[in-house]
UniProtKB/TrEMBL annotation:
One of its GO terms (cellular component) is cytoplasm. Its cofactor is Mg(2+). It is found in: Cytoplasm. Its main location: cytoplasm. Pfam families: Ribonuclease_3 (PF00636). Gene3D superfamilies: Ribonuclease III domain (1.10.1520.10). The keyword RNA-binding applies. InterPro entries: Mini3_fam, RNase_III_dom, RNase_III_sf. Belongs to the MrnC RNase family. Homodimer. This is Mini-ribonuclease 3. The active site is at D16. It comes from Staphylococcus capitis.
Length: 128
């Protein structure tokens, strides 16, 4: 299967799960706290606003390869028929674009690059 041909919102769906799992593992091991506290902390990493800010930072630092930029564009421009919750459409599209790249890397078995991206996302959020 050619992962590049998948719908970008499908890639974003997968990327959302991958990012969420990575962040949960990170904060559980770091905080060793109660679930409510863990949930509050995880929102700092996985909210649409945080993802959009992270994406802007990564783009401004030329972090992505040309292939990943193509996935980003497709993810950002995809027409979603669900309404964005707690954010504006532009922020939602940026977060979907970042999730699409994560989903692409995961499904394309680019594990080293995926791990590099996930660790970079955590570092960027931690610096805020």
């Amino acid at each position: 299967m050619n992962v590049k041909l998948l719908n970008p919102l499908t890639l974003a769906y997968m990327g959302d799960a991958v990012l969420d799992q990575h962040v949960r593992e990170y904060i559980v091991l770091k905080l060793q706290s109660k679930p409510n506290r863990l949930h509050q902390v995880s929102k700092q990493y996985v909210s649409a606003k945080s993802q959009a800010q992270t994406l802007e930072y990564l783009i401004s630092n030329d972090w992505f390869t040309e292939e990943e930029l193509n996935v980003l564009r497709r993810g950002r421009n995809a027409k979603s028929y669900t309404k964005a919750k707690n954010t504006d459409v532009q922020t939602y599209r940026k977060s979907s674009a970042l999730e699409a790249v994560i989903g692409f890397l995961y499904l394309d078995h680019q594990h080293a690059r995926l791990e590099e991206l996930l660790q970079t996302i955590v570092e960027i959020v931690n610096e805020r």
